[in-house]
Design brief:
By secondary structure, the chain is mainly α. The chain has one domain. Helix content is about 65%, strand content about 0%. It has twelve helices and no strands. Helix 3 runs parallel beside helix 7 and helix 7 crosses helix 9. The longest helix is centred in the first third of the chain and has 49 residues. It starts with a helix and ends in a 5-residue tail after the last helix.
């Protein structure tokens, strides 16, 4: 019986949250769609710079000197950490559908996250097209067949990105690290809207470990990771200042946007109340000051029973 009762509560909570999120999605879908489309544009730009990449000797790098090379067979470590961070954030962003305690709407959160990602990725595209460095990854080095790409036979070959091989074995899109963009955006977002202090500390620790693993795997130069750390943090800081703050749902108030008709109706009701209260207060002051009130006003019902009681109480006995 307990499981059945809790299951019913959970289902009602999911349905109610889905209804609220869909209402927000119908109003904010343009910006969300634009953010998702830009993810494809970012992948297209990374694919395009691969045609410009020319392999060469590895550049002198302080991180390469300090960190031992993991080797090609252990390159999965950095990808495993990144996958864990990505999936963890994705699941956490949808927790308002299940948990009773919640601070944000999922649609509004991802709208904010995509704004951070688009701004950072736009700067990244400009940066890696400005200067092409010889890739340090194993498939980008001299002698590898994947280090350079022959000219495309048709536009479709470029537009399809050769997915997923073209995404996993890209070269030339170095400064600055795309993995660190996602990692830092996710960590900073949880740091602001998350509630568990221990998880916040662990998320920053995971970001540091991710940075070291990227360098040790020779997937990026140290400069790619360092630039990502200060660029993404500055982008998130300034973009966050420009965006309207998300409503805090811990207050328990209904903060869903209403339609224009509802807003107009509520505004008219408030104005009507204010006008009515203002007239009643004016007549009340007239009575207290000994002024007469027009009898037609009383006949038209502008003053209620509460007003009569108030006046009778305020009038001294025997007058």
């Amino acid at each position: 019986m307990y499981v059945a009762r809790e299951s019913t509560k959970l289902w009602r909570r999911v349905c109610a949250e889905t209804t609220a999120e869909l209402q927000l999605l119908f109003e904010k879908w343009q910006l969300l769609l634009a953010g998702l489309v830009f993810q494809y544009i970012h992948g297209l730009a990374a694919r395009g710079v691969h045609y410009l990449h020319r392999p060469g000797p590895l550049l002198q790098d302080l991180g390469f000197m300090a960190l031992p090379e993991l080797g090609q067979e252990k390159g999965y470590l950095s990808e495993s950490v990144f996958t864990f961070i990505f999936i963890s954030f994705l699941l956490w962003s949808f927790h308002p559908f299940i948990y009773h305690s919640k601070r944000f709407y999922t649609v509004l959160l991802w709208r904010r996250v995509l704004a951070f990602l688009v701004a950072s990725q736009f700067l990244r595209i400009i940066t890696f097209y400005s200067t092409q460095l010889p890739g340090p990854n194993y498939h980008c080095r001299e002698g590898s067949k994947l280090a350079t790409l022959p000219p495309p036979n048709n536009a479709l070959e470029v537009l399809l990105l050769n997915f997923p091989r073209g995404v996993l074995f890209g070269c030339g899109d170095l400064i600055f690290s795309s993995h660190m963009i996602f990692t830092l955006v996710f960590v900073r977002t949880y740091h602001k809207y998350g509630s568990n202090r221990l998880i916040k500390l662990l998320s920053w620790l995971m970001a540091i470990i991710q940075s070291l693993l990227i360098i040790a795997s020779r997937k990026h130069y140290t400069v790619d990771v360092v630039v990502a750390w200060y660029t993404v943090n500055l982008v998130v800081f300034f973009v966050d200042k420009k965006l309207p703050e998300m409503p805090d749902r811990t207050t328990g108030l209904s903060l869903l946007p209403v339609s224009t008709k509802d807003k107009d109706g509520k505004m008219k009701e408030e104005l009507h109340k204010l006008e009515k209260d203002g007239r009643m207060m004016d007549e009340f002051h007239k009575l207290l000051n000994g002024n007469t009130v027009d009898a037609t006003d009383w006949m038209n019902g502008k003053h209620g029973e509460d007003m009569n009681h108030t006046v009778s109480d305020a009038t001294p006995t025997g007058t």
